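Sat 14:20. Reprocessing the chain from the morning session after the first attempt stalled halfway. Input below, unchanged.
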Amino acid sequence: MITQELYAITYNSDLTEGRGYPITLGFAKSEALAKAIVSDPRFGRYCCMGFHNAQDCQKYNVSPKSVLIFESVEEPFDLEKQKIRDKALAKLTSEERELLGLS
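Finished this time. Tokens:
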């Protein structure tokens, strides 16, 4: 299982007034690349009423996203078990964890 930090490039589904839901155009590996893409004048086709403001696009159309990539069938189910284990361990004090040999 791999966790990849990416930057989502989004635009609004309502290109007339901007009152719709966000649509993900794609992802970039670096924030600088994502900001360069939304700053490009050609990105104006994804902006409300075709008005392109590079600073606003960098602020509102780029957001960090953590993507979880599975490499086997078992990994999603192991993740579920790990969440249950973490929830149970959160209920224990540090002394109880030490006595159980979990520290």
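The chain is about 35% helix and 25% strand.
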